[in-house]
């Protein structure tokens, strides 16, 4: 059950009475105002809380501290709301604030969310259909819904209120955020991933980005249903995981890399010992034999940091059958390649790149960051020997996330790594509602890995790699217009 009502999530501003659209004179405490004392919403829909609201809030907080020891004592949030409402109303009256019924409810919700939750964004966090919440300073809150970014009318009062929410998130984790350490990665108790960055680094006020944790992680059937992959590709990639190929998932920010990694990890046979290594544990493996490792940032004195690279090195001494690394973004790339080339097959990871080819360049750059001096050719040889398959994903213009390319690494030719595309996304049209129509099509090339897959005892249907006729895999469009 959501703790708070969702009336101020709606992109529409809550209705204010006609009267409120007129600017009212500021009121002194002695003379009750004849006119409404606040202009709740500016012309652009921005909400400005009345200054006296702060005082009401403080009174409520004082009451809570004095009278209420715990939420349990009250029997839950509903009872708490019931008990607080009269005090809140009295507080408004004492402050001579005249507000409409809608505003009163709005302010009350805001206050409850402020005291017990994560402020004005709490209702957004409560909703399962919102996948990301992005606070860009106090007056701009975006959400991601169905793959699309939407600006909401949710506002914080000021920078201090955003900071307060950030502190509420990071303090229980023993982290802090202030001018000296103005960036922090954290997690909500439900596992949602949080990043906060504040001035002076962030110029427009404190920013907060929350990637909501899916209680019910996406499965391969979901990806097929969404059109992110085809059943044929799903069959192929499952075979690749079982046959212990080393697979890299490549894509831009928020393209669905971790989700794909999680799906791939789901194909790992249950008797394998899996070690996962992550920045912030997001993977949700269902197998029984999984050891989860998470990096540790330095403490306030700048000590005690354990990097992804340290964990990769350590994991090699843990007798892993599979190493799954959430994302390679530093020198650990070299250790990982070396692990893959020394008998740790079947490893899976993700990295940031825009095409399969670029992802190999990126690994090269990351290896150079490791500080170990290796000639470029030697690095490329290591990459070519270690990486078997690159799955490229992308968030398309219409908000859908799709596998757009699956390329196999074949080896070296001269100084170059040779790859071949096995599957590529083909767009065939755009629907009236701007949805992109198309599907992942086989290029007709047979993978070299077929042999390894056969050795693992898997027989793939012979026609899996036959190129489809144009549009054969597409969802059935109703109204289409040409590309
Ligand atoms: N195929 C998909 N179809 C629909 N939604 C998806 C798909 N894949 C991922 N998502 C959703 O997209 C959001 C981002 O996914 P994910 O965390 O996997 O991306 P990412 O590439 O790992 O992001 P980052 O670069 O920030 O680590 C999540 O809310 C996830 O549930
Ligand atoms: Mg990720």
List the helices and strands and how they pair.
Layout: H1 18-21, H2 52-67, H3 71-74, H4 77-94, H5 101-116, H6 122-126, E1 132-136, E2 141-145, E3 148-151, H7 159-170, E4 183-187, E5 193-197, E6 207-211, H8 220-225, H9 231-242, E7 247-251, H10 257-265, E8 274-278, E9 290-294, H11 308-315, E10 322-325, H12 332-340, E11 348-352, H13 356-368, H14 376-386, E12 389-395, E13 401-413, E14 416-431, E15 436-442, H15 450-455, E16 480-481
Parallel strand pairs: 7-11, 7-12, 8-9, 8-10, 10-11
Antiparallel strand pairs: 1-2, 1-6, 2-3, 4-5, 5-6, 12-13, 13-14, 14-15, 14-16
Helix proportion: 25-40%
Q: Give the averaged pLDDT, no decimals.
A: 83
If you compute it from the alpha carbons, what radius of gyration comes out, rounded to the nearest whole angstrom?
Answer: 27 Å
What summary fits the major beta sheet?
Answer: 10 strands, mixed
Percent of residues in beta strands: 15-25%
Distance between the termini: 44 Å
- Low-pLDDT runs of 5+ residues are 1-46, 477-483
Give the names of the bound compounds: adenosine-5'-triphosphate, magnesium ion
């Amino acid at each position: 059950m959501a703790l708070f009502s969702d009336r101020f999530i709606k992109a529409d501003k809550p209705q204010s009475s006609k009267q409120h659209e007129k600017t009212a004179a500021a009121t002194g405490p002695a003379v009750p105002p004849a006119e409404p004392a606040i202009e709740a919403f500016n012309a652009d829909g921005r909400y400005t809380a009345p200054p006296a609201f702060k005082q009401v809030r403080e009174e409520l907080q004082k009451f809570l501290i004095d009278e209420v020891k715990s939420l349990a004592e009250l029997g839950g949030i509903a009872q708490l709301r019931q008990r607080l409402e009269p005090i809140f109303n009295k507080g408004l009256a004492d402050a001579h604030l005249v507000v409409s019924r809608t505003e009163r409810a709005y302010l009350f919700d805001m206050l409850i969310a402020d005291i017990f939750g994560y402020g004005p964004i709490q209702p957004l966090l409560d909703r399962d259909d919102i996948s990301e919440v992005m606070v860009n300073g106090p007056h701009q809150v975006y959400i991601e819904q169905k793959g699309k970014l939407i600006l909401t009318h949710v506002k914080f009062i000021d920078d201090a209120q955003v900071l307060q929410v950030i502190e509420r998130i990071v303090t229980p984790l023993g982290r802090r955020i202030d001018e000296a350490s103005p960036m922090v990665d954290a997690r909500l108790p439900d596992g949602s991933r949080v990043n906060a960055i504040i001035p002076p680094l962030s110029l427009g006020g404190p920013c907060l980005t929350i990637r909501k944790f899916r209680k019910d992680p996406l499965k391969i059937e979901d990806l097929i249903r969404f059109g992110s992959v085809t059943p044929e590709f799903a069959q192929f990639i499952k075979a690749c995981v079982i046959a212990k190929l080393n697979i890299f998932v490549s894509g831009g920010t928020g393209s669905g890399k971790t989700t794909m990694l999680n799906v791939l990890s789901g194909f790992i046979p249950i008797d394998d010992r899996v070690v996962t290594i992550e920045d912030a544990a997001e993977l949700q493996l269902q197998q029984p034999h999984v050891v989860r490792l998470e990096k540790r940032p330095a403490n306030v004195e700048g000590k005690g940091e354990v990097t992804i690279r340290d964990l990769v090195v350590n994991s090699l001494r843990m007798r892993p059958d599979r190493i799954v690394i959430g994302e390679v973004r530093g020198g650990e790339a070299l250790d990982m390649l070396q692990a893959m080339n020394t008998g740790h097959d079947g490893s899976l990871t993700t990295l940031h790149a825009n095409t399969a080819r670029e992802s190999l360049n990126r690994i090269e750059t990351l290896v150079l960051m490791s500080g170990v001096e290796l000639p470029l050719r030697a690095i490329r040889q290591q990459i070519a020997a270690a990486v078997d398959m690159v799955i490229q994903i992308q968030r398309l213009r219409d908000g859908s996330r799709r596998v757009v390319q699956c390329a196999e690494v074949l080896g070296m030719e001269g100084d170059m790594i040779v790859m071949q595309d096995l599957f590529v996304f083909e767009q065939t049209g755009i629907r009236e509602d701007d949805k992109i129509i198309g599907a992942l099509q086989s290029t007709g090339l047979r993978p070299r890995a077929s042999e390894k897959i056969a050795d693992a005892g898997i027989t793939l249907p012979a026609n899996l790699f036959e190129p489809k006729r144009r549009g054969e895999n597409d969802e059935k469009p109703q109204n289409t217009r040409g590309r």
